[in-house]
Amino acid sequence: MNILSLFVLIPLLMLLGLWLARNLNQVRGVMVAGSSALLLMAVYLTISYISLRNGGAEGEMLFVDEVTWFAPLNICYSVGVDGISVAMLLLSAIIVFTGTFASWKLKPLTKEYFMWFTLLSIGVFGFFISTDLFTMFMFYEVALIPMYLLIGVWGSGKKEYSAMKLTLMLMGGSTFLLIGILGIYYGAGATTMNVVELAKLHIPEWMQNIFFPLVFVGFGVLGALFPFHTWSPDGHASAPTAVSMLHAGVLMKLGGYGCFRIALYLMPEGASVWGDLFLVLTTISVVYGAFSAIVQTDLKYINAYSSVSHCGLVLFAILMMTRVSSTGAILQMLSHGLMTALFFALIGMIYGRTHTRDIRQLNGLMRIMPFLSVGYIIAGLANLGLPGLSGFIAEMTIFTGSFQNPDIFHRVCTIIATMSIVITAVYILRVVGKILYGTCTNPEHLKLTDATWDERLSVICLIVAVAGLGLAPFWVSDMISNSVAPIVSHLIH
């Protein structure tokens, strides 16, 4: 069996194991075994991929396999990975693993929760390994549908409203996406839905001008593209901890990945026509998200609007259409995925103890829960781009690559987007100073305990990943850059 198919098969076996599990320990055992296997396999795949490339492997996609599913429409179960896909699979595996431990004590309906969580992960892994447009769309839908129940049943606050808003907006984006995918297929006069093969065909320019905005908006809704981002803060704020981690850390990356892999790669002429308009919208996302985070008082809303800003930066970098900025976009997906998962994990752990996320009611936590407080500081420093952590590498690559465009419009957009660095520093340092330092004024909080072993394991894994990407980025940036090259060379400037 192809190694990539195991990324779908293992979660399917996990679903079977969870269904057969009869008590909480068996449920936890299935999740730990399955998520550990996925993480080890992602690490093995990364090492194997780099070894093959260093050994001279030339194909645009490696570990390729294809089985016909529906011959009349040329729909195939077609898999393959390049450096971008490998990086996303590794990110997904890390967050599924750490999310399992972040949900260790979740109640009620623990078994049912983990079943939906696992189904969500099937969609995510399947999306990143697929090279067939329809199969990719199918896995995309599988990833979206469980979010409604995960937020609506196990969430907090306005959970029913948030779950319905998220589902309606993302399903609306999916409608655009399906129309766009069928437009690409019939417009190219194709006999295959394989992305690599479709890129070799020419879709008439007038059709690209129609279908490019549909596909870009369809994926952009999930990537928090302004003004279609409004589902994101509510969804994040209401979701349980591990769902927020997977949602912000991985699910939103499907949007950026799809915009780059499908919209820009398959419709370069459409990208050149519509690119400037969407670049303005993404620049607004970057700055608006950061400014909105400043005025929030709920820890989850602060991080949710921060995610709007940082995911906007991904789409911004993609639309700059240079090799360096596109490499930075993928690095930003990795960096944001790791550090926002760390943030949401820590916020969930703090909320589980204090029963509030209002920063006006939190202070002096460093004395009470030093481990969680130090973790929060590290996540904050990564978010504001401290050198040595993942955020710095990603943002510097994006802004350097974006400024390579010689025209005034692109450079003005780049300068405006760099303002987000300053704004991010303001809200991160403000929150850190407010909730962690000073004297604790709530006597009930003085009785609280620090992180348990399962929480420490989850936090440490994410901190190591954030620091590892920041201190040794070249192996992953080289892997990504080589895979970005054929897509960027396809674009029309």
Automatic annotation (TrEMBL):
Residues covered by the NADH:quinone oxidoreductase/Mrp antiporter transmembrane domain: 130-415
InterPro entries: NADH_Q_OxRdtase_chainM/4, NADH_UbQ_OxRdtase, ND/Mrp_TM
One GO term of the biological process aspect: ATP synthesis coupled electron transport
Organism expressing this protein natively: Candidatus Avibacteroides avistercoris
Chief site of localization: membrane
E.C. no: 1.6.5.-
Coiled coil start-end: none
Segments passing through the bilayer: 30-50, 86-106, 113-131, 137-154, 166-186, 206-226, 273-295, 302-321, 333-352, 364-388, 408-429, 457-476
Location in the cell: Endomembrane system; Membrane
GO cellular component term of the entry, any: membrane
Alphabetized UniProt keyword annotations: Membrane, Oxidoreductase, Transmembrane, Transmembrane helix
Pfam families the record matches: Proton_antipo_M (PF00361)
Top-level class of the enzyme under EC nomenclature: oxidoreductase
Name assigned to this protein: NADH-quinone oxidoreductase subunit M
Topology in the lipid bilayer: Multi-pass membrane protein
Keyword Oxidoreductase: yes
Highest taxon listed in the record's lineage: Bacteria
Family designation: Belongs to the complex I subunit 4 family.
One Gene Ontology molecular-function label: ubiquinone binding
